[in-house]
Amino acid sequence: MSEDSDAAANVTTTVPSQSLSNESVSKTQLAIQSLSSILTTAPPSLFSSINSAFSLLHDHEISSQISALLRQPDSGAGDNDLCRWFYDTFQSDYPHLQLVVLRFLPAIAGLYLSRISLRKPLAGFEAVLLALYAHETTSRDNQSITVSIPDLSHPSIYHESREHAKNNSTELNLGVISPALEPHGTVRSTRRARIVGVALELYYSKIDIMPVESKIEFCEFCEVWSGQDGEMYKELGGVVVENGENQETVKRDGRIPLPWELLQPVLRILGHCILGPKKDDKLFDSAFSACRSLYARSLHDINPKAILAFRSLLRLINTSLDPKSAVDYTEPSFSNVITI
């Protein structure tokens, strides 16, 4: 089954059965007509497609035009038509159209963070990011995202605890993946990483539906953000660090601050790109290269948490590339030799 057909199946299951009602079709056609006035050309088939939103999500020609417009020097200004279209489309509250906006989040976030130091007007990008952040704030309803951490003091399906079972659920070990969100109407320097990070968390929640090109674009921006060249760790996989003068990696342009609020969703997205169920060689290579660059950056910044995370991810990559890892030792071996 192809990538697009898999995505089509996933999109179909994320919305109610009446997803192609007259209202949704009307919203989609209005969005396409508005977008066609911004783009140079729009394929005629897009207007006649039964599921125009899905076609808009995966149309290579339209994606190329939008990416080109986003990379123009004045693309992030407050009066930019494309940014206004992204904002209005996401506010339509139609899931299929919201996926189209998320498809271009890597470019929006990547260009926004890379241009902060240039002191250019970026109100258009900020409006889109704030719309995504507000959507997540409303969806989470002031609740943090947590995960239960295994604890041997509590019984499980694999073992019995020697201590008496505790009925108080609050005594479970809970790890906070993403703290509760506070509403923000503007982007300040102290909130920027958190707002962009939450937008990337929303992107990660839909990443199995996103086209491969969108994920590759994200990996490329991760390399730009790192400002480091991680090629020296290609063979080593980030496990062994060279000593002496070879330890200093080559610096690149585009380096940005990388606090944990930003690195955490980046790690999840890269982990999916590398170890996800849908294998794509180009995506794997882009994500692997991004991991090496970010690992080099974490070593340069002496960031223990980031060093541990990226080195662990690189170890997983090495394990997956090792031919011996494909052997399933739980399977019984067969032989034509009879041993007496």
List the uncertain runs.
7-19, 236-250
- What is Rg? 23 Å
Question: If you average the pLDDT, what whole number results?
Answer: 80
Instruction: Name the overall outline.
Output: globular
* Strand element count: 2
Largest sheet: 2 strands, antiparallel
- The strand line-up of the biggest sheet is 1-2
| Percentage of residues in helical conformation | 40-55%
Give me the oligomer status.
Answer: single chain
Secondary structural class: mainly alpha
Pfam family, one: Hyccin
Family: Belongs to the Hyccin family.
InterPro entries: Hyccin
Protein name: Hyccin
Characterize the structure shown.
This protein has 340 residues and is mainly α. Helices cover 53% and strands 3% of the residues. The longest helix is centred in the C-terminal third of the chain and has 21 residues. The N and C termini lie far apart (48 Å).
Quickly list its features.
two-stranded antiparallel ribbon; 340 residues; cell membrane; Hyccin; single chain; cytoplasm; mainly alpha; membrane; 2 strands; globular
Briefly summarize what is shown:
This protein is an all-alpha fold and 340 residues long. It contains 14 helices and two strands, in the order αααααααααββααααα.
